[in-house]
Amino acid sequence: MKKLLAMVLTTFFMSLSVNAQDFSDSKSSALTGKAWKAAAANNHKLVLAYTDKCIELYLKEAKKMQAKLTALPKGSQEEVSKLWALNDVGTCLFIKAESLLKNGDKAGAVKIFKLLVKELKFSQCWDSKGWFWSPASAAKQKIVELELDQ
Amino acid sequence: MKLCVKVTVFVFSIFVLSSFTAAEQKSQKVEVKKNATGTWRVYINDVETPIRGAGGVIQPGMLEQFKKAGGNFTRTWGIETLEEKVSGGKRYIDKAHELGIHVVAGMWIAHERHGFNYSDKAQLQKQRAEVRAAVRKWKNHPGIVVWGLGNEMEDPASQAGNPLVWKELEVLAKIIKQEDPKRPVMTVIAGCSAAKIKGVMKHYPSIDILGINSYGSAGGAGEALKSVGWKKSFAITEFGVKGFWEVPATSWGAPIEPNSTKKARSYYATHKLVCEINTGKELCLGTFAFLWGWKQEKTSTWFGMYLPTMEKLPQVDAMVKAWTGKWPDQRCPTILKVTAEFNGKIVAPAKKMLAAVEAVDRNGDKMTYEWLVVAESKVLSVGGDREGKPLSYPHLTLSGNDPECVFRTPKEPGAYRLFLTVRDGRGGAATANIPFKVK
After folding, report:
1. How many folded domains does chain A comprise?
2. Which of A93, B270, B354, B419 has the fewest C-beta atoms under 10 angstroms from its C-beta?
């Protein structure tokens, strides 16, 4: 009986933790990874929690990195990844905007997309298929797509 | 007798000369140059002509549909297409010209991935002779405004392309210009990697227009070109929806196809971005949407802007809007949402499943709904090579014409898609599909 109760309680608390935010690792890469997972699970609340945390902690550093650039950085994955704050905050802005859009907040999404384009246009995100993509370019595409009121 | 022969020869010569002159006069004046604002443009008979183009446009009735939508340029991939019979029994090139549509006459240039060897002199000579013969045959047709020298012959999967290919294109372009100095030459490549652009700049200076086939990153093509120093004009020669290689996939690797609503947005935005908004827009002559017709490539609906029944899809309406600023009077239905519990999931065989669609028709037309289970294509084609159609299972759809679908999953394990077609009964449709796997 005690064992059964322990199992039930453990399962209960584990289920809670799936939906609870976890900031134990607050590196920008960790927060961004968790934001992606939350987005894949359609957990809008968690997406906002992780993206907002990343933006809160690292936007200032991201802007500093952006200010030093005059063009989209080229090079190996390792080299481009040195701009960790720029890349992760840019990516988090994109994830946040996409999640807002999915949850019916078109105006909120466009606002974030525009912020991304204006402030962090040289951020990049690594695609596991083997290339970098530009969250700001993707955001620009989204802004124009959303103009097409179907 | 001798006088009679002389007179006959003289009259015949006058006739031949006048025919030749007449044909020359029929040919249009084509230039590629900057306009007053510094934007590159095609000029046809001194009229500035932005490209509102499409590729394909060869299936029955497509040229007429294209004209109606406001398109003005088409491109073909092989020279034999010019003689293909279209509706009314006319040749493609004659019908296009009759409708006032300008044709970029594509000549297929061999690919190494199909076995061609760019170090083999005999193969190169044969190809050169074919190009020369094609230009001689067609150069007097007024419907042709640009020569399309090759499509992705540098290998679509390569980042740099083989320098021998660029060098051979230079030889071929010179052959074209010897035979026909009046028309510009365009070569089409896959994507716009810096290495490819530099290869073209170094080895192929005779090119007039660079054609770029690009899907997910088409909007950024102008900027990519400028960043490596490209100064001539370019056109986006294939674009539209993200490629199946660029989208997320299910756990079993089936690429998730955007529905027609999302595709329409993508077509519209890409054209606007590359032509009007993004860096490098002043180099852009215009775009060719892909594909103005229908094609089996990964799925039966991925790239096509029409159904085989000739019903247009929202991507067509989006291009009309992009070209003219206005929606067409008769619009396609819009899919707002598709709900399916099995979307991207692994399910049991022979099990009943439910799906539902929310759609609207802006004209208020009554919509019909067709749901169909189709096997996932197993073909791994590259570069748009021809594919066969996978099997479909109409008997598995248990419900009728309804926005809610009841169907039974196949007994055979494997990957499938539930396809949805929404029709307005007035020539317009919308599509979506939901991938699932039976195990």
Report:
1. 1
2. B354
